[in-house]
């Protein structure tokens, strides 16, 4: 596994994913016992952020510290990227100095392309900390959390990924798209509920359907929020921007931005409140990648209820990060 990149788990086999999960669970158990493990002593991870981050930044940096290594917290303005340095030169230089590179770049139709350019020229593992298409670090922590509550036999477990209203910003498609691709590979029954103006990317949905067919899972799309959440075992309310509505014709300009904003305002009623959540199973779990737009995406009453496992999910960002770093950088 050394020298392997992680941009999407679509490039990983299920055996490789299960190995990562097993390592992460083992490291979590040892962490709970306050065991000190330093397999990455004196190793360096370069973390380059094009956007803000709370869980990703801190889980990876803490993971490197706890494994005996060091993480550099970098932004464009701290590097010559801001002066136009090429992805090849950036990748080649950092590969000579450290043992891993991690990048977050969520700019639509730019981020994934940039990460793949870095991966092409890097001689050390490249880890995506989220781009415009995928968020592998979130989905692996989600899956670990699901296994902790439901075990490894997850066939027919109904997971609802529900678009919800938010005012904070036009969030990337990467979290729901990664979940749509990943969960059906483990036999889950995945339903994605969204208004018609907020679809995911067509090519991602087609691949997700193939993953479901190949692995005994299911993928259902609906524009009815009540139908989406009915009898769900797990509900994941999450806003995402209307980028997929424009497909490859998307242009980041005033016209498309206004259309997206107007479409957003049509669906203020898409909120995960007590009434809507009551349609799920009585013991259904609430998950959320965070940050949540409280009062818009989901009410505090639901998000802070006994059904919520959002902080277990957030903590597992640390343990899966440690597992991944140990697996790729040791």
Structure description:
Helices cover 42% and strands 14% of the residues. It is α/β, with parallel strands linked by helices. The protein has two domains: 9-135 and 314-329, Aspartate/ornithine carbamoyltransferase (Rossmann fold), CATH 3.40.50; 139-309, Aspartate/ornithine carbamoyltransferase (Rossmann fold, 3-Layer(aba) Sandwich), CATH 3.40.50. Strands 7-6-5-8-9 form a five-stranded parallel sheet. The longest helix is centred in the last third of the chain and has 20 residues, at 310-329. It is globular. The model has no long low-confidence stretch (mean pLDDT 95).
Structure keywords:
330 residues; Rossmann fold; 9 strands; 42% helix; globular; 13 helices; 2 domains; five-stranded parallel beta sheet; alpha/beta; four-stranded parallel beta sheet
**Low-confidence runs of at least 5 consecutive residues:** none
Distance between the termini: 9 Å
CATH superfamily of the largest domain: Aspartate/ornithine carbamoyltransferase
Average predicted confidence as pLDDT: 95
Total count of domains: 2
* Class by alpha and beta content: alpha/beta
Fraction of residues in helix: 40-55%
What is the chain-wise order of helices and strands?
A: HEHEHEHEHEHEHEHEHHHEHH
How much strand? 5-15%
CATH topology of the largest domain: Rossmann fold
């Amino acid at each position: 596994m050394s020298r392997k990149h992680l941009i999407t788990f679509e490039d990983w086999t299920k055996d490789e994913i299960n190995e990562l999960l097993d390592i992460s669970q083992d490291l979590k158990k040892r962490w709970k016992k306050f065991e000190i493990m330093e397999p990455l002593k004196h190793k360096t991870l370069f973390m380059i952020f094009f956007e803000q981050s709370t869980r990703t930044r801190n889980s990876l940096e803490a993971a490197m510290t706890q494994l005996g290594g060091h993480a550099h917290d970098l932004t464009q303005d701290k590097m010559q990227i801001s002066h136009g340095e090429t992805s090849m030169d950036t990748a080649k230089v950092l590969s000579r100095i450290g043992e891993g590179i991690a990048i977050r770049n969520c700019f639509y139709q730019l981020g994934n392309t940039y990460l793949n350019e870095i991966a092409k020229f890097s001689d050390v593992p490249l880890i995506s900390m989220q781009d415009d298409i995928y968020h592998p670090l979130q989905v692996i922590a989600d899956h670990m959390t699901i296994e902790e509550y439901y075990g490894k036999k997850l066939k027919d477990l109904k997971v609802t990924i529900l678009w919800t209203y938010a005012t904070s910003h036009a969030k990337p498609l990467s979290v729901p798209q990664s979940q749509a691709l990943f969960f059906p590979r483990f036999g889950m029954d995945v339903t994605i509920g969204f208004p018609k103006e907020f679809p995911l990317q067509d090519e991602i949905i087609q691949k997700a359907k193939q993953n479901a067919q190949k692995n005994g899972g299911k993928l259902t799309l609906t524009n009815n929020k009540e139908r989406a959440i009915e009898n769900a075992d797990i509900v994941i309310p999450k806003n995402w921007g209307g980028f997929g509505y424009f497909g490859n014709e998307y242009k980041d300009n005033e016209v498309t931005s206004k259309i997206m904003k107007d479409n957003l305002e049509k669906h203020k009623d898409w909120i995960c409140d007590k009434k809507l959540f009551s349609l799920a199973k009585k013991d259904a779990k609430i998950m959320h990648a965070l940050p949540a737009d409280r009062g818009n995406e989901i009410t505090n009453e639901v998000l802070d209820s006994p059904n919520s496992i959002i902080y277990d999910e957030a903590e597992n960002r640390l343990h899966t990060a440690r597992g991944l770093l140990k697996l790729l950088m040791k």
